[in-house]
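Render this sequence as a predicted structure.
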Amino acid sequence: MIILASQSPRRAELLAQVGIGFRIAPASIDETLLPGENAADYVERIATAKAMAVHQRFPNDAVLGSDTAVVLDRTVLGKPTDRADGMRMLLALAGRTHQVLTGVALLAAGRTHYRLSDSRVRLRDISPEEAAAYWATGEPADKAGGYAVQGLAAAFIERIEGSYSGIMGLPLFETVQILETVGVHKQWGV
């Protein structure tokens, strides 16, 4: 049994999908990108900070934290602040390939274990009208980069290279690797 330091229903669904027993304890941390911080360092810092914040409350438990960044031209696109920001992000990503980095950190037995998932996503061209209709669904409001790969935005995705679960927010291959290094195994076998 581990603790998932996240309130994301997607991360919980993904962890349950691979048969890992867990409970949820969301982390409340400042996720502001630091000046000059690159995306890989950012997701590592935030994933680790989430796990550390929850581990302070539950020091005897293994705690898993994760963070995802959508990166276009070396710029991290966070969650949209409003409709205009969401539309700007989606239209900037349209017709282009961008990077999605997801870091996974596990604090267990006094050690931090970390893995990074690096994927590429290409969106088709998207008209301003399509972007507005997508925004009106409410789906992109709390998603990094202003879209959800597992939702309605799947209709915009031409190609994915890398980890689908990583793009969703919890790369399962890397997560299971980390958990197995500390003796946490899938409930459906070794």
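Summary. Strands lie at 2-4, 22-24, 63-72, 75-77, 97-108, 111-123, 157-161. The longest helix spans residues 39-57.
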